[in-house]
Design a protein that fits this description.
This protein is 44% helix and 3% strand. The chain has 679 residues and is mainly alpha-helical. The longest helix has 19 residues, at 659-677. The relative contact order is 0.11.
């Protein structure tokens, strides 16, 4: 196993032959040696573990010591679904630069993720997903698999039984249109002239979320040019249409009723298509030029755009459509950046949708601190310094709505200066708070800047979004292009809880104006059953954990009825085995909130929430702790097949391979700290 540039913790990926989902046989050796910190650095032990709790903490602690990489960070796989790798295959075919060996490995990976029923899912154990299955099928067709291959026969049956290509989502249709397998006029309009709208306009591009903006701007270039790369007959996928498509099949399905926003925007889309087909578009050339410059300006020195695969891949496509050669520096760096998101071994290759070294490092560092590792331990000091060095010191897109705010904070990836986020920033600062470094002044200043930046990103309604302030134009999710319902980044309870925890950790009281507004926000957004919806983790357990930890940290009276409703909700959701779990389906059906097979990460969130609310001595907590002790393996790790992270609720789920280990360690360490204080 290897990545193309940065080393990745080999035990924190599905490619290590340990996890049950691995595409690599267990007897396979890694393709490249991963050099971790030498034992002389991390083997600084304090005392001997005696109780089962102490022993479990020690095993988990030593696992993280072993997995820390030489520079001081941790980096685990961020697993999503097969569309990310399938689109990588499509990109190389569109650019005319196929590497057959890598394509074979990517095809192996896609086949390894196909279910027995023949479809592909967006999370472990989930239902078949039509768009994901169509993209995987198409990629395999491009890679040389024939329509009569057994895997393809099974996939095609599922696809046709679920409506075929016509019923797929927008991004799938765009990729098919690039190869002439779907009509461009059936793709929702995103006119390039949007680039010309001023920032005060209601639908200007800075009202879109950061990830949407970084994807839509290059994609609008592609959609303006409407390129088609013709395929040989063997690679076409016309067999995925239930019947030969008719013009009416390319229209969008309206909602019941006449006066709905969705129907209104479908009408607007029809008018935009008439405009786009006109030979007279006086502002098209200027808009294309502005979009081109935006794409070039937003490329990081490492070649990344936005730190996510959709922005990166579509930016490469956009530059190609504008006539940039594959060896042009901007394109070449973009392709290199995509390659650096890959995990590869002898048999398989997967492209990650994003990478999370800053997030992973903050989580691991916080877990080790909570586990009682001395704060001056060399491993912790090295990780802290690495995080300090990743501080964002440049203005990003957030500056549009906060022109007077000075830069600070942290991003998710190795480098993503345009898009730091409050969640990473908050967790990093809480993790490094008590760890001494050689230059303590630089750490203090970084924290001061980070807190100021985070507080400056509070929205008018008192909550926080991830990357943008007041990104609340919910009408944008009604346009035909928005079938993922993720074009905005509105404030959410989980992020607001994190900011309350940040403020409380650094001495702010609940009377502080930002805290007062935040408390009002979380109260207003509490569910009737007492839980909170989770935007960035699955789901109500995640949101409730974040909020309760924030409320406790800021000094809220924990006996209040709204907090006790949340406590009682968590207690009621404990499984018979003592753990907690929640299915990703709870985003579709809220009645499934807190329901699902127990997982280590979700159990840890529930325990941390309950302990924050003063329930450390309850039988509910002791049973949850016992679940974690019982589930731990001899090497100090936990198994977890389920996806407990969220990209886009309902449509894009994530499995963070670090979650199953870092959160249980945090929970066990917190439990030990609290029970010792009572002795």
């Amino acid at each position: 196993m290897k990545s193309c540039k940065y080393p990745i913790s080999h035990a924190l990926t599905s490619f290590n032959g340990v996890n049950g989902e691995s595409a690599v046989p267990a007897d396979k050796k890694p393709a490249a040696k991963i050099h971790h910190l030498p034992a002389s650095i991390w083997k600084k032990k304090e005392g001997e573990a005696q109780s089962p709790l102490d022993q479990a903490i020690e095993r988990s602690r030593d696992f993280f010591f072993r997995e820390q990489l030489p520079a001081g960070y941790w980096w685990a796989e961020l697993e999503s679904n097969c569309t990310i790798t399938a689109e990588y295959i499509m990109l190389f075919h569109f650019l005319g630069m196929v590497d057959k060996q890598k394509e074979r490995k990517m095809a192996n990976y896609l086949l390894s993720k196909q279910t027995e029923e023949g479809f592909w899912t967006i999370y472990y154990g989930g239902p078949g997903d039509l768009s994901t299955s169509v993209e995987a099928y198409f990629a395999l067709k491009l890679a040389g698999y024939s329509a009569d291959h057994p895997a393809m026969v099974k996939a095609r049956a599922f696809i046709l039984n679920n409506g075929g290509i016509i019923k797929t989502r927008v991004f799938t249709k765009i990729f098919l249109a690039l190869f002439g397998e779907f009509a461009w006029f059936g793709v929702p309009s995103m006119p390039i002239e949007l680039m010309l709208l001023p920032n005060w306009a209601y639908f200007n591009l800075y009202e879109f979320s950061s990830w949407s903006r970084a994807t839509i701007i290059p994609l609008s270039i592609v959609m303006t040019e409407r390129p088609v790369r013709k395929l040989p007959p063997r690679a076409r996928v016309q067999e995925l249409y239930v019947r030969p498509p008719r013009p009416i099949d390319y229209t969008f399905t309206k909602e019941d009723g006449i006066l709905t926003w969705k129907n209104f925007f479908i009408g607007v889309d029809h008018m935009l298509k008439v405009y786009e087909s006109s030979p007279i578009r006086p502002f098209k050339k200027k808009a294309l030029s502005i979009a081109e410059q935006w794409v070039l300006d937003h490329q990081e020195p490492t070649g990344d755009w936005g730190g996510i695969q959709p922005a990166m891949l579509n930016s490469v496509l956009a530059l190609h459509c504008l006539g940039y050669d594959n060896d042009h520096p901007a394109v070449a760096k973009g392709l290199e950046a995509l390659a650096n998101f890959c995990i590869e071994d002898d048999d398989g290759l997967v492209l990650q949708s994003c990478i999370s070294p800053v997030w992973d490092t903050a989580l691991a560092l916080k877990a080790l601190v909570d586990a009682g590792v001395p704060t001056d331990h060399p491993s912790l000091v090295k990780a802290t310094q690495w995080l300090i060095d990743r501080e964002v010191r440049k203005d990003g897109d957030w500056k549009i709505k906060s022109p007077d705010l000075k830069p600070g904070g942290w991003a998710f990836e190795f480098l993503n200066d345009w898009y730091p986020d409050v969640d990473d920033s908050g967790f990093v600062m809480m993790a490094i708070k008590d760890v001494p470094v050689k230059n303590s002044k630089s750490k203090d200043q970084a924290i001061k800047r980070g807190i100021a930046w985070c507080l400056g990103m509070q929205s008018k309604n008192g909550g926080w979004g991830a990357f943008d302030k007041d990104n609340t134009k919910h009408l944008l999710n009604k346009i035909p292009f928005a079938d993922l319902e993720a074009l905005i980044d509105p404030p959410t309870a989980d992020l607001t809880g994190r900011m309350l925890e940040l403020m409380g950790t650094f001495g702010y009281g609940k009377e502080y104006p930002a805290a007062v507004r935040a408390l009002d926000f979380v109260k207003q957004n509490q569910e009737p059953d007492g839980s909170w919806w989770g935007r960035w983790g699955v789901n109500y357990i995640y949101g409730t954990w974040s909020v309760l930890c924030g409320l406790a940290a800021i000094g809220e009276n924990l006996s209040q009825s709204y907090i006790q409703r949340a406590v009682n909700w968590l207690k009621s959701k404990q499984n018979l085995d003592g753990g907690w779990g929640e299915t990703c389906e709870s985003y579709h059906d809220p009645t499934l909130g807190g329901c699902g097979e127990s997982t280590p990460s979700q159990t840890a969130w529930a325990l941390l929430a309950l302990m924050a609310a003063g329930e450390v001595d309850s039988s509910t907590v002791s049973r949850g702790i016992q679940y974690l002790l019982d589930q731990q393996k001899g090497d100090g790790t936990w198994d977890e097949d389920q996806y407990t992270g969220t990209g886009f609720p309902k449509f894009f789920m994530i499995k963070y391979h670090i979650y199953r280990n870092c959160f249980p360690l945090t929970a066990l360490g917190t439990y030990r700290n609290l029970t010792r204080k009572r002795q």
